[in-house]
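Bit of a strange request maybe. I'm writing a small parser for structure token strings and I need a real example to test against, not something I typed by hand. Could someone generate the tokens for this chain?
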Amino acid sequence: MDVELAEVRDFLARCAPFDQLPVEQLDRIPARLTQRYHRRGTVIIEAGAPNDTLHVIRTGAVEVCDPDGTLLEARDEGDCFGYSTLAYTGPSRYRMVAVADTLLLEMSKGVFDEIAAAHPGFRDFFGERSDRIREDLASARLAAAGGDALGTPVGELLSRDAVTATPDTSVREAAGIMTDHRVSALLVVESGRVVGILTDRDIRSKVVATGGDTSAAVSTIMTPDPVTVESRTRTFDATLLQIERGVHHLPVVEDGAPVGMVTTGDLLRLAQTDPVYLAARISRAPDASGVAERAARLLPLVGEFVRRGTAPQDIGRVITATADAATRRLIELAEADLGPAPVPYCWVGLGSQARGELGVASDQDNALILDDAADTTPGADEYFAALAERVCAGLDGAGFPLCPGDVMASNPRWRRTCSAWERQVGDWVQAPDADAVLHAQVFFDNRAVVGDTSLYLRVRSQMLERSVGSPRFLAHLARIACDWQPPLGFFRGLVVARRGEYRNTLDIKAGGIAPVVQLARLHALSAGLSEVSTIGRLDAAAGAGVIGRSDAENLGEAFRYLRGLAYRHHARQIADDDPQDNHVDPSMLSSADRNRLRAAFRIIAGAQGSVALKYRVGQM
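Reply from user aminoacidic:
Good idea to test on real output. This should exercise your parser:
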């Protein structure tokens, strides 16, 4: 065998399913293959076109899309495509596009059938792959159609046109309009745009109860600039928005013009037993034990989400919404006992809660930002220490364990005034030692949960401004992002632990999910972007030119897959009443999942290599 054929043979020996063939069979294959080069952007196989070739990617990358252009899977070195048409007669169901300069090894259908006849497992491998791609296509179409009741566009829930008033309508006239139309709220509209919302509660609490002037304009008592949703918004997203914002009425608009309004009742009638409403029930808990009792229902519901095929990012949002609701209710209960806060404050979720990516049994990370007046207000420190202690303990009881690193508002280091936080951020960025960078990366994933958001926005603005102007700080973040190594061996095979409690498993969080989070944070902060979610950061970074669009999309797909795999793993553990972890045994996965896992890890390793080169990580 000449040198070039030997190189091809050694390459195939590292690729599934060729690595399972007998040595003598593998030796005969290279001479029966052809090689073809495709420039980036070339359509290799068009949907609807015939194909009688198995393609093996020797170098480069290829995207598999449905006929409408929906990305189903990204393939890279060592992966195959084109096999679905070898198993049945007919044109290709998918569109295959080179997204990098790509060199392919091509096997004819005759050679494929000959090998498959001698080794049935060879054909079975590609059959599983074809089935999985068809499932992805069906899932994509199901998601586009809604999938279930919560996929229904909110516009379809509207039973009447928008009931409106103008800003100068009197309170008395507005009350008459609401009575005539039998509604509990109306939209305040000016120049065809929603400028406010007026509820019967506003009229009762702000006029009737106080003996106010009913001839006053509604603009004096309305809620200005209410959050709105487009009519095409999924009911799922509208419900989470209500929970996140604590509102009961959502104006529905089309291109900014009001078309109606949906209420909490409308959404509850659509799917009263749906898990997404757990957060709403928590918000009405009578005490901390009630919060814990209702939050305990979350764990078994993860399996329901997995069974439905709910997208991983949506599962994370529901778990996060549950944590947010528990936090808000616990703060309300604490204030009821302790009295009103002596100065304005903002409770901030950190880490995965801030990103909307909480998982099963994620521990809590949070902080308090206090008005600067807290330094001179008697009793302020004692008040907020007591409030934080109650809330953190309550979250622990509700299934969000105390942070092992003590990154919680109950720790005075994570409970500071606005000015103190600004100084702390400056210190972290200007003198980024190991501890500083570890603390900064937690705090820099932040989101206001409840309280005075102006305090949060002030600190966030300082944080973004300082991070952009600190190459040294960004270089340290890059080093951390590259330290989280995907479990791949020299030949890109999966590497499992060889001893200890998690023998024969690999950690998909430490080896896959965490590095993507780190990379996305680095790219976003380097451009001063305010996005917090991992997918949002990657998309925004691509838009800002910090990372290539295809690189961002590939990382995003790897992230979604790994999170979905983690939720499936957790659902099985919950069903078996086992403790939850992120250690997956590859031998328990289908061959399709093992290959997708390898592909995801390769994408991450490649992205880390680019970052290491850009920030000179090896030279730090």
